[in-house]
Amino acid sequence: MDPAGQRIRDKLWYGILPNVRPLKTRGGHGTGHKLCDGCDATIWPKEAEQEVELEGGRTLRFHVACAGLWQVLRSALPRFHAKAGVSMSATTILAGILRKVQPEAIMLAAGTRIALPPDLSAKDVPVGASVLVTVTRSERGEWTARRIEHESRRNGRGR
To answer: Whose CA, among 5, 9, 36, 150, lies 20 to 30 Å from 66?
Structure first.
């Protein structure tokens, strides 16, 4: 995989790029003043740009090739559906492989520790599962889980 593809894959995996369907897409040319949300390179005026509008008013800008990679790579991750009553503007979705489950926290393979509130349990989520965790971040920078979705790994191959 080329470096742009690896960067987009990693951004999806760690929740930096969203794993949601766009509401609208528009095409045009870059301005030279904006970076591609996929590869982080400038989108120059001579380059085609794809603007992606998401629910909540967020807009992403990609090189056309990066937009295609984002669409293909995000389809490889489990889908997330927002839980009623959870404000998407106040939350973040982290994706990863579950490495450890403790009564008060879970740990992802990348080393991210996510606190579990008393009303949420991860005891039924198997270690090694692909997880999407809806989280909020405290002022001290600590992640707290609000919802956990998982897909068990089968034969070491994920889905």
So the answer is: 150
The angle, 0 to 180 degrees and rounded to 10, between the axes of the packed helices 3-13 and 64-74 is 50
Is the separation of the CB atoms in 145 and 112 below 8 Å? no
The overall pTM is greater than 0.85: no
**DSSP 8-class letter at 45:** T
Instruction: Go through the chain and tell me how many residues it has.
Output: 159
> What residue ranges define each of the domains in the chain, with the CATH number in brackets?
3-74 (no CATH), 88-151 (2.40.50.140)
Per-residue pLDDT of the chain in tens (159 residues, 90 and over written 9) = 678 888 888 888 777 888 888 999 999 999 999 999 998 899 999 999 999 998 888 899 999 999 999 998 887 765 544 444 444 445 677 777 888 888 888 888 767 888 888 888 888 888 888 888 888 877 677 788 888 888 765 544 444
